[in-house]
Amino acid sequence: MHVRSENQTDAAAIRALITAAFTGAEHADGTEAEIVERLRASDGLSISLVAIEDGEIVGHVAFSPVSLGRAPGYYGLGPVAVHRDHRRRGVGAELIRTGLDQLRDRGAKGCVVLGDPAYYRRFGFACDERVTLAGVPAEYFQILRLTDSGDVGAVRYHPAFGIE
């Protein structure tokens, strides 16, 4: 398996992968593929990586800009999708690590994620009650600080997410 940035010919395969990966998922609302397409169309897809195995896309992760209070330099991780036949093999973890390394290289201040605390803790994410997302239980919203900026406040995702 290898990880690379998406290219112009990947969009349809990424959409199919995300749709299949989130169909029937407990916390999915069915808009994940549309979110990625809206991010791409609005230049809000800061990092878009695919995992390739045997010439097929088996995983995808997106990173997009968010605001933390009034501070720039933060990104949101997600969605992340892995083909059902390739789960529990480290595909998602490799995509996330590669994306976080790229954020560090860009000088990002940090990254937020909405998801399972036990899973994202391995990458250094932690809950911080001073960093919030409206309507979301604090224990599921986490931040990975990449600098010592200490910014706090409410997070706003890119408009492509449709979160008011």
TrEMBL record:
<protein>
    <submittedName>
        <fullName>N-acetyltransferase GCN5</fullName>
    </submittedName>
</protein>
<dbReference type="InterPro" id="IPR050832">
    <property type="entry name" value="Bact_Acetyltransf"/>
</dbReference>
<dbReference type="Pfam" id="PF00583">
    <property type="entry name" value="Acetyltransf_1"/>
</dbReference>
<dbReference type="GO" id="GO:0016747">
    <property type="term" value="F:acyltransferase activity, transferring groups other than amino-acyl groups"/>
</dbReference>
<keyword id="KW-0808">Transferase</keyword>
<dbReference type="InterPro" id="IPR000182">
    <property type="entry name" value="GNAT_dom"/>
</dbReference>
<keyword id="KW-0012">Acyltransferase</keyword>
<feature type="domain" description="N-acetyltransferase">
    <location>
        <begin position="1"/>
        <end position="147"/>
    </location>
</feature>
<dbReference type="InterPro" id="IPR016181">
    <property type="entry name" value="Acyl_CoA_acyltransferase"/>
</dbReference>
